[in-house]
Amino acid sequence: MDAFWLSFAVIFVAELGDKSQLMAMTFATRYRFWTVILAITAATSVVHLFSVALGNLVGLALPTGPINIIAGVAFVFFGFWTLRGDKLSDEEEGRALRSTRSAFFAVAIAFFLAELGDKTMLATVTLATTEGWLGTWVGSTLGMVAADALAIGLGAVLGRKLPEKVIRIGAAVLFFIFGAWLVYEGITA
Questions:
Q1: φ and ψ at 99, to 5 degrees?
Q2: Total structural domains in the chain?
Q3: Better-predicted residue by pLDDT, 148 or 79
Q4: Residue 100 clears pLDDT 50, i.e. is over it
Q5: Structural domain of 80
Q6: pLDDT score at 77
Q7: Which of 67, 102, 112, 132 is the most buried (most CB within 10 A)?
Q8: In angstroms, how far is the first alpha carbon of the chain from the final one?
Q9: What is the DSSP string of 65-126?
Q10: Is the pTM of this model over 0.85?
């Protein structure tokens, strides 16, 4: 359960202000809420399962202390990445708006491609190096889906006028805290 809650929290924070969250809001303006959420869940499940497998392999090959230090530095990097912010490219926004295929598959494929190499994928790999694979996979998947569902709901209620800068700064600060904690654990291990 520790792996689940940690992964849920970290990925939820990582997803705040991320480009896939912007994609979720864009898709939700065109397709039904539940179709978008189910497609996000399917795509995220596949990407994060791969991420957890990769993280587990790395975790088995390296000792815990250095892994925690590397993970902590990675989380600090994710904090700076979060401060920089994400925006949809013209191509990604166009894809979200013009899709004429099945809504589920259009959203799932777009999310799958958007998540490859994204900070949430990399954070999941990082978490899986030291945490249990099942809790990390389920927690990271549900954390991302919850953050995207929140964005869709708030976007609908607030007319897509979220205080993006405040969300970005808050998420970055949480990444810095997680990073410092992991570096401290790595040094004291």
A1: -55, 130
A2: 1
A3: 148
A4: no
A5: 2-188
A6: 79
A7: 67
A8: 22
A9: HHHHHHHHHHHHHHHHHHHH-----HHHHHHHHH--S-HHHHHHHHHHHHHTT-HHHHHHHH
A10: no
